Amino acid sequence: MKPVTQDRPYSQTLTRLREAGLRPTRQRLALGRLLFDGGDRHVTAEALHEEAQAAGVSVSLATVYNTLHQFTEAHLLREVVVDSARTYFDTNVSDHHHFFLENSGSLMDIDGNKIAITGLPQAPDGTDVARVDVIVRLQGTPRAAE
Amino acid sequence: MKPVTQDRPYSQTLTRLREAGLRPTRQRLALGRLLFDGGDRHVTAEALHEEAQAAGVSVSLATVYNTLHQFTEAHLLREVVVDSARTYFDTNVSDHHHFFLENSGSLMDIDGNKIAITGLPQAPDGTDVARVDVIVRLQGTPRAAE
DNA sequence: TCTCATATTTAGAATTATTCTAAGCTGTTG
DNA sequence: CAACAGCTTAGAATAATTCTAAATATGAGA
């Protein structure tokens, strides 16, 4: 059985950028590597910025925002709306859904072809379905340990 | 077949407030009536504020925010997260989901018991499912009229 | 390798939705 | 009708994100 994550061996960030028509600048390469090396990730702009700083890469927050949006347009990332306070970006761009832990604010992927949704009414006239998002909101149970 | 909306004859706003333990103030009554009279609604704080002004009710925006949150705690409203830019409040608190028209920013209800979701993995240890949200994102088709 | 036009980055200001604060009203209860 | 707890409110404060304009880096071509 395939994991949710597609094969994505040590991200060829450079190649990906070229394909997307984005100049491989120092900042984009660094952010790309942070994002795409090592599995699926869900990040906020703020968090990625801190991570970059911590990794000794100097990038402004504005550039982090720019880059996240450009990557999203290039379909290297996907935006996930779960919380009205902040925007998450997901490195997994395949068909899937999310668990959202309301306490910690963390996200977990749910494989898209494990879930089936039936009975959806058809889209109203003059519209097309761009995407269906399923968000399973979780709360920590009172006494988790026993 | 039942419509999505439960019967809700000309909202007894006063009663609802009492039951929720909220003082029936002029502002809460007015906002309650705007919200609960006449079918299911999806509003933003800003929009409800303007509507109140237009109806000749003087309420501050802060009070609109307070009231929307208090109504939500009292389960008279439900918060819908579809757009990272603004928060929507839904007067339909029964089990249901949403179409979201990305162009206009408008929401439409999808009856909850028309849809079935199968194959959801169980919630991780120490967590409980608080709610499952399905959002069908719609885009206007290029040439809607023909 | 050098130059240049253009894309990119950036600091800081600006914006926007929302929350907070502190002071003044108002409902309710005795 | 007094009095207090609960409400409302203007305006300040916050926080995430976007904008601006100036400085810098990149890639193509000579």
Question: How would you portray this structure in words?
Answer:
The structure is a homodimer of 146-residue chains. Chain A is 29% helix and 25% strand. Chain A has 146 residues and is of the alpha+beta class. In chain A, the strands form two sheets. Chain A has a three-stranded antiparallel sheet with strand order 1-3-2. A three-stranded mixed sheet of chain A has the order 5-4-7, with no helix packed on it. The relative contact order of chain A is 0.14. The model of chain A is unreliable at 1-8 (pLDDT under 50). The interface between A and B is large, with 41 and 42 residues. The structure holds a DNA duplex (30 and 30 nucleotides).
- How much helix is in the residues of chain A? 25-40%
* Structure annotation, total helices of chain A: 4
Q: How much of the sequence of chain A is in beta strands?
A: 25-35%
Average the pLDDT over all residues of chain A and give the rounded result.
Answer: 90
Tell me about the biggest sheet of chain A?
A: 3 strands, antiparallel
The total of beta strands of chain A comes to 7
N- to C-terminal distance of chain A = 33 Å
Biggest interface and which pair forms it? A-B, 41 and 42 residues
**Rounded to an integer, what's the Rg of chain A over CA atoms?**
17 Å
Structural class of chain A: alpha+beta
The quaternary structure here is homodimer
- How are the strands of the largest sheet of chain A arranged? 1-3-2
Shape of chain A: globular
The residue ranges of chain A in which pLDDT falls below 50 over 5 or more consecutive positions are 1-8
Order of helices and strands of chain A: HHEHHEEEEEE
